[in-house]
């Protein structure tokens, strides 16, 4: 099957006064239509930057420095602003942690939707309103609330509105960045179920960005784990949780409290992530890795395909060397 | 290899460059500082720099700038250059005194008023708002007239109009800091009110003061000039830029420009110095604006 | 500590675990801020019923977790316990002594024994105070130590929380440290007075996942060393399972279930507890779980529902649930629930 999105050696750097922060430093990634990828990482891993760069929304002083983002085989890094606007919303859309800031407080919810629809499609106001009502129904907002303003909605409802806006134009890819982080457990559960349902009915590709690996396991088909600006493991979700080949994956899963285990021995990862202004030349996880060898310090490990669809960036799986 | 000479000014500029966010702004603070420092030095060493006694007739009336009197003489035959130099003393002392008085009262009252709240706060806010809403210059004129001439009195007259500025700024900051988490944490460890105000709130307020301070000083220079211009504030024959500006004003029609231009220029330079310093400090202290 | 207190404590150590904290019908209502026009047209004052008559007790050396979603009142309860805010009603007893209305010097005295760790390590430290100074401040405030003696105690605490070399960290400002480090400072500062009761308000929710266990481990080590009693406030049941002895589930200002950790997780009773448990994400896509769908969202605590506050969302609600409020009943040893189903 043809890949919906293929990212080749992407590098996104932030040019700050203190130095150049290499937030995304050589990311290779691909996903198919209808697939949900969970992009997981802690703070500073580069996951948000990666998500934003797919929509070319990286804020200045950030820049896409190198690499390609092939969406439907077209390199969108080369697109100008005008063409990019045609892509955003229509083919790729994004939802954020707090849609309150992206909703106009003076506009009714219904109008938000009709504006978006009319901006991209040639329909009458009536038709747009009908579509808006349909969308609100799909995300579980009662029709009588369509004429309300954003501040009248609770957190969970606003997230639903955010989803409605994102799927209004039937995009091929939806990127959700820490989308449920501000929600309570039960509402989070409801929203996640909603997204699973929509994913199925719209056959949408989804990139679900989160620091919470347990959360991501609820919805993802594949897991991409990021560390210090690079993807260190990319595998189908089931396989990931069973095998977790990369030392960071293993360490991370051991540090997450699992409510189904009794007498869990929780551990933490000693040390700190590397400085992204001067990343080390070898493996970035080297100082904190329990399996580290001298080779790891000297050279950067390649992304190795351990099995079909399962990639790990670690020398332990490099047969050529072992 | 050519040995690059290491100069103190280059060092200072490079230090400022590293902390100033926008290109070029590192020079603001430096230039402002140099200007003010020069004028302060001028004031301190006046007797050694000035060629003549500033209050004595030493030459002809209204002599044009020449070899003996580089800036000319005024209507009473006094050397303008010497008067400019000695004028720095009054400008600096009144300005600094006024700023110190208004700062001390404004900040202290703002701290207490903001923290204590209640009736105390209501009363002081009312008083400060009343002063603030009064046109500054007019109030200064009234006070100067009431208090009479002299450096201290003039300084007080000016200080009164600026006290509300500090008060309002500090009070506003205190009101928001009062609710902050680290103040709550201080209360949780058992800190007394006194400790909270001076150890926790005050240090977080004080960083906003320098910018207000220098801009106030700039304004004070102009107010002092205005007062002297109107004949209030300092007694003649004290060399004072504002006074000399006014005195020289009358001759402008006859194309005799030097008695008023040079004092006027000094007022502008000192004001500029304070403004640049204020802007520069503002840039340095607000790293949030850095991109 | 004063001599008579030392004697008292030794006696209690010899007996079985004493009740360290007891809360009875604790209530906190906040008046709703009204605009000028609103005040003009209606004299009625509305209240946010943040904490609505809760009761529980905690024995010395135990970890009691208050679990609930945002708005349930757990944070307010934490602040009430350390008396950062005053209760609207009810009583708080610390080691048998009524501390509900302490003021002034006696309140300050109480603070030596009851401390709090806040959620946000980026905001709970004075940005203009060096951390050595910040950590030593409680010692100065309570007149325990100054100067060199104070510095020595701070150095010891810095090492204890894992910030070594102490000398390097003593003069550092908060902005130079990471979130995890700052939280450890906050913990050290809370512990430096050797308190007996510590309220921890979501202490790890703003820390990176892979570093959370480090903070938890530090807190547990300190608990064992100093025989501390913790009130652990969290929305994360998985963390609560890891760290607690007892768990209290809160909903809209009330405690709906209390029990030992094992009981809450293996035999949850209240419908809300069950819904919460079913909603927790688990890092295992293959797990089997009960899929409980709750209706609607948490209602406002200004006009809460009548009777059992949970009834509008409950799949088992009856008429009785709507009309009368259930109180906590003991169903099995140590396990209480407030629900008409029982």
UniProtKB/TrEMBL annotation, chain B:
<feature type="domain" description="ABC transmembrane type-1">
    <location>
        <begin position="88"/>
        <end position="278"/>
    </location>
</feature>
<dbReference type="Pfam" id="PF12911">
    <property type="entry name" value="OppC_N"/>
</dbReference>
<dbReference type="InterPro" id="IPR000515">
    <property type="entry name" value="MetI-like"/>
</dbReference>
<keyword id="KW-0813">Transport</keyword>
<keyword id="KW-0812">Transmembrane</keyword>
<comment type="similarity">
    <text>Belongs to the binding-protein-dependent transport system permease family.</text>
</comment>
<dbReference type="InterPro" id="IPR050366">
    <property type="entry name" value="BP-dependent_transpt_permease"/>
</dbReference>
<dbReference type="GO" id="GO:0005886">
    <property type="term" value="C:plasma membrane"/>
</dbReference>
<dbReference type="InterPro" id="IPR035906">
    <property type="entry name" value="MetI-like_sf"/>
</dbReference>
<keyword id="KW-1133">Transmembrane helix</keyword>
<feature type="transmembrane region" description="Helical">
    <location>
        <begin position="256"/>
        <end position="277"/>
    </location>
</feature>
<keyword id="KW-1003">Cell membrane</keyword>
<feature type="transmembrane region" description="Helical">
    <location>
        <begin position="27"/>
        <end position="50"/>
    </location>
</feature>
<dbReference type="GO" id="GO:0055085">
    <property type="term" value="P:transmembrane transport"/>
</dbReference>
<protein>
    <submittedName>
        <fullName>ABC transporter permease</fullName>
    </submittedName>
</protein>
<feature type="transmembrane region" description="Helical">
    <location>
        <begin position="136"/>
        <end position="162"/>
    </location>
</feature>
<feature type="transmembrane region" description="Helical">
    <location>
        <begin position="91"/>
        <end position="116"/>
    </location>
</feature>
<keyword id="KW-0472">Membrane</keyword>
<dbReference type="Pfam" id="PF00528">
    <property type="entry name" value="BPD_transp_1"/>
</dbReference>
<dbReference type="InterPro" id="IPR025966">
    <property type="entry name" value="OppC_N"/>
</dbReference>
């Amino acid at each position: 099957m043809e890949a919906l999105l293929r990212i080749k050696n992407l590098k996104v750097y932030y040019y700050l006064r203190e130095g150049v922060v290499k937030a995304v430093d050589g990311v290779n990634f691909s996903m198919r239509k209808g697939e949900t990828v969970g992009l997981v990482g802690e703070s500073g891993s580069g996951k948000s930057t990666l998500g934003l760069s797919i929509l070319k929304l990286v804020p200045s002083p950030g820049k896409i420095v190198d690499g390609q983002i092939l969406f439907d085989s077209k390199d969108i890094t080369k697109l100008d602003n005008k063409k990019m606007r045609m892509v955003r919303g229509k083919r790729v859309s994004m939802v954020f942690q707090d849609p309150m800031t992206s909703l106009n407080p003076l506009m009714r919810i219904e109008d938000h939707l009709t504006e978006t629809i009319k901006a991209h499609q040639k329909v009458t106001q009536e038709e747009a309103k009908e579509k808006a009502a349909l969308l609100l129904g799909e995300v579980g907002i009662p029709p009588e609330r369509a004429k309300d303003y954003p501040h009248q909605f609770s957190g969970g409802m606003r997230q639903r509105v955010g989803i409605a806006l994102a799927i209004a134009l039937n995009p091929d890819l939806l990127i959700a960045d820490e989308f449920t982080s501000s929600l309570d457990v039960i509402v989070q559960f409801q929203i996640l179920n909603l997204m699973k349902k929509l994913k199925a009915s719209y056959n949408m590709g989804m990139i679900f960005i989160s620091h919470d690996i347990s959360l991501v396991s609820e919805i993802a088909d594949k897991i991409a784990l990021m560390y210090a600006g690079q993807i260190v493991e990319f595998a189908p979700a089931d396989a990931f949780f069973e095998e977790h080949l990369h030392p960071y994956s293993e360490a991370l899963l051991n540090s997450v409290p699992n409510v189904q285990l009794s007498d869990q021995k929780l551990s933490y990862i000693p040390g700190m992530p590397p400085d992204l202004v001067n990343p080390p030349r070898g493996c970035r996880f080297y100082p904190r890795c329990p399996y580290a060898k001298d080779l790891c310090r000297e050279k950067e490990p390649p992304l190795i395909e351990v099995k079909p669809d399962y990639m790990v960036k670690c020398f332990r799986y490099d047969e050529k060397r072992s | 290899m050519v040995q690059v000479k290491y100069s103190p000014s280059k060092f200072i500029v490079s230090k400022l460059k590293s902390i100033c966010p926008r290109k070029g702004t590192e020079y603001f603070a430096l230039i402002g500082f140099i200007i003010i420092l020069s004028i302060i030095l001028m004031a301190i060493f006046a007797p050694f720099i000035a060629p003549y006694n500033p209050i004595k007739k030493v030459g002809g009336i209204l002599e044009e700038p020449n070899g003996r009197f580089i800036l000319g003489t005024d209507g009473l035959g006094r050397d303008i250059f010497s008067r400019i130099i000695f004028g720095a003393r009054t400008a600096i002392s009144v300005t600094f005194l006024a700023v110190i008085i208004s700062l001390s009262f404004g900040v202290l009252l703002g701290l207490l008023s903001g923290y204590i709240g209640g009736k105390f706060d209501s009363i002081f806010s009312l008083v400060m708002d009343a002063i603030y809403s009064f046109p500054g210059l007019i109030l200064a004129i009234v006070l100067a007239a009431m208090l009479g001439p002299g450096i201290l009195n003039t300084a007080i007259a000016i200080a009164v109009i600026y006290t509300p500025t500090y008060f309002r700024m500090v009070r506003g900051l205190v009101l928001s800091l009062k609710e902050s988490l680290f103040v709550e944490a201080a209360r949780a460890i058992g800190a007394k009110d006194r400790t909270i105000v001076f150890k926790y709130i005050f240090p977080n307020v004080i960083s906003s003061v320098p910018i207000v301070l220098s801009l106030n000083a700039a304004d004070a220079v102009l107010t002092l000039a205005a007062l002297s211009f109107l004949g209030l504030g300092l007694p003649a024959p004290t060399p004072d830029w504002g006074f000399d500006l006014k005195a020289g004003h009358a001759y402008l029609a006859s194309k005799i420009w030097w008695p008023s231009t040079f004092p006027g220029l000094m007022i502008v330079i000192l004001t500029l110095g304070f403004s640049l310093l204020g802007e520069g400090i503002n840039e340095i202290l607000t790293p949030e604006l850095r991109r | 500590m004063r001599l008579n207190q030392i004697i008292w404590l030794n006696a209690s150590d010899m007996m079985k675990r004493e009740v360290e904290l007891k809360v009875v019908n604790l209530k906190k209502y906040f008046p709703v801020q009204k605009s000028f026009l609103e005040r003009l047209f209606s004299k009625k004052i509305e209240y946010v019923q943040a904490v609505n008559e809760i009761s529980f007790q905690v024995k010395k050396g135990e970890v009691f977790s208050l679990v609930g979603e945002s708005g349930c009142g757990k944070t307010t309860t934490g602040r009430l316990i350390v008396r950062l805010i005053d209760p609207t009603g009810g009583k708080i007893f610390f080691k048998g002594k009524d501390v509900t209305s302490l003021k002034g010097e006696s309140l300050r005295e109480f603070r030596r024994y009851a401390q709090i760790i806040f959620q946000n390590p980026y905001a709970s430290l004075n940005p203009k105070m060096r951390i050595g100074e910040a950590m030593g401040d409680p010692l100065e405030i309570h007149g325990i130590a100054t100067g060199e003696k104070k510095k020595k105690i701070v150095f010891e605490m810095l090492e204890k929380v894992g910030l070594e070399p102490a000398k390097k960290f003593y003069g550092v400002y908060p902005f130079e440290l990471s979130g995890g480090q700052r939280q450890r400072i906050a913990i050290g500062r809370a512990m430096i007075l050797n308190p007996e009761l510590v309220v921890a308000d979501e202490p790890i929710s703003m820390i990176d996942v892979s570093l959370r266990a480090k903070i938890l481990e530090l807190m547990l080590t300190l608990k064992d060393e100093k025989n501390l009693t913790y009130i652990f406030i969290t929305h994360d049941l998985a963390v609560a399972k890891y760290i607690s002895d007892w768990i209290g589930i809160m909903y809209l200002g009330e405690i709906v279930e209390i029990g030992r950790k094992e009981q809450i997780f293996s035999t949850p009773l209240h419908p809300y507890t069950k819904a919460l448990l079913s909603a927790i994400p688990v890092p295992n896509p293959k797990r089997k779980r009960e899929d409980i769908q709750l209706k609607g969202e948490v209602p406002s605590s200004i006009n809460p529902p009548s009777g059992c506050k949970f009834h509008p969302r409950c799949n088992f609600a009856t008429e009785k649930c709507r009309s009368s409020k259930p109180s906590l009943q003991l169903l099995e040893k140590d396990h209480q629930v407030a629900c008409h189903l029982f």
